[in-house]
Amino acid sequence: EEEFNIEKGRLVQHQRLKIMEYFERKEKQVELQKKIQSSNMLNQARLKVLKVREDHVRNVLDEARKRLSELSKNSAKYSDVLRSLTVQGLLQLLEPNVLLRVREADVGLTETILPSVAEEIDAKAEEEFNIEKGRLVQHQRLKIMEYFERKEKQVELQKKIQSSNMLNQARLKVLKVREDHVRNVLDEARKRLSELSKNSAKYSDVLRSLTVQGLLQLLEPNVLLRVREADVGLTETILPSVAEE
């Protein structure tokens, strides 16, 4: 019974897989058939468009032949049209040697209009030459202007760099002079203080004033005074008056 159920399950699974594969193939075939039908319909639509376009072109050509045939009866207008078409064709070709193919009835008229055709082509060529020359001149003018603008910016930048360098050098000189001046002032102060220390009365007043100024700058409750060894006794003497002041 167990083996029977196992075999039955295997067969059922096998049949299920075969059915699924069958429907997958059918689905792919249907999808392919739809694509083929869509492609055929698209091709038919394109053929219809091409047919309509071809019919339209044929109708336009027939209408043009008809109108040219009617126009040829008016020699003045036909001459102008033939000259314009000849000029357009030659301008399109731009060849030094061209063989014109015309109706036998138009040979004489064509020979008549050729001088004016040549003049018009020369005039148009001269006009196009002047236009191209103007375009090239304008292009070169713009390039020259851009070149001088770049040069002007470079010169301006160079001036700024030089000005900055000169300003930095001037600042360094000012700092050097200031440093030398401060050094000279300090040297002079040391020299004068050294001379002043020989006059005990004046030196005592100066030391007291400097001590008061220093303590007022600090504004601290406890201060350690650092003085020369020779000024220890004098400093102790002036401290009461410093405290009072």
UniProtKB/TrEMBL annotation:
One of its GO terms (molecular function) is proton-transporting ATPase activity, rotational mechanism. It comes from the Eukaryota. One of its GO terms (cellular component) is proton-transporting two-sector ATPase complex, catalytic domain. Pfam families: vATP-synt_E. Keywords: Coiled coil, Ion transport, Transport. Belongs to the V-ATPase E subunit family. It comes from Cuerna arida. This is Uncharacterized protein. Residues 54-81, 179-206 form a coiled coil. The keyword Cell cycle does not apply.
